[in-house]
Specification:
single chain, alpha/beta, seven-stranded mixed beta sheet, two-stranded antiparallel ribbon, about 45% helix, globular
Length: about 350
Amino acid sequence: MRQTIKVQIGDNKEYIIDISDCCFEKLNQEIYELTKNQKRLVVMSKKVYKLYSGDLNFNDDEIYVFPDGEKEKNYKNYLKILNRAYNMGLTRSDVIIAVGGGVVGDIAGFAASTYMRGIDFIQIPTTLLAAVDSSVGGKTGIDLPSGKNIIGTFYQPKKVIINTNFFNTLDERQYKSGLGEVLKYAFIEESCEYDVPQFLYEFLTLGCEKIMQREPLTVIRMIEYCLNLKIAVVSKDEKEGGLRKILNFGHTLGHALETITKYKKYTHGQAVVYGMFFIIEWAYKKEYINYSYYRLSLDLLEKYGFKPLDDYYPENKLIEIMKKDKKATSDKITFIIPSDKKQVREIKLTPFDVEFALKDM
């Protein structure tokens, strides 16, 4: 099965997303046709290289094997990619290809956006999380030790190729990490301003068993629903000036949890789910949502095996991290909160308000 989605951002930025379960032979042919007149630097995660280098027709001299883990998305590794591109003789007419999860996509995209002031970039996400989140929308970046994605650009890819065969080797923890981001879209669906209803909330409720079993057609349809919603948002707000902020539902606390644990304890999707549990609970207590939707929300998260956070971290340390978030203002911390079924809104809280809410978790 193959689904094709066209992304149109502004008047002069457009690209195609292909979602399929085609064999690797067809994937290789597609990559060849897309890049046959270009030099290629292929940034591939170490884990993906071990699993799939034999299935993908890249020459070893064009592959840069990137170490796994969020902590590797740093300035030193960014410079290594740029130096590799320069030593290979890449010019403005050539291409960087990311093959891996969100870490590889983020740093390779940042390198592509800044090398010679921008060269072609192709995303081939190999995790569910990257497929529904970081590979689409144009965000690229690297981390500082004290904050995630502090340095980066908005840079759209030439194409995104999603092949669900890569998901077959994801362990349960990584697959569920992707589902954390998928569930986020269910809570923001109507706020995304997509032109026709997607009924993702209902799809995830009824299709849970097939999704957990990774049934190919169901997974492809699920990814399509999520990307339709994300594209509806980023096509209207490429650089997060307004509407795009809703994509951060669950992320304010989620990013803080990732940072405080140095990206070692929680996957990104897991941290985002904890952030969603927290803000759903807060919204109910503050009467932004009624009890019926509160229970439906918790039931959906729990249906996929997620539970609220039961670890403790000092409130003052979490707040200091949140205050450095890109979306924070000088005296307020920004949260995206549920306001009705499938709807969210932005709210700004004082550090005192956040401290009180965290103590009440």
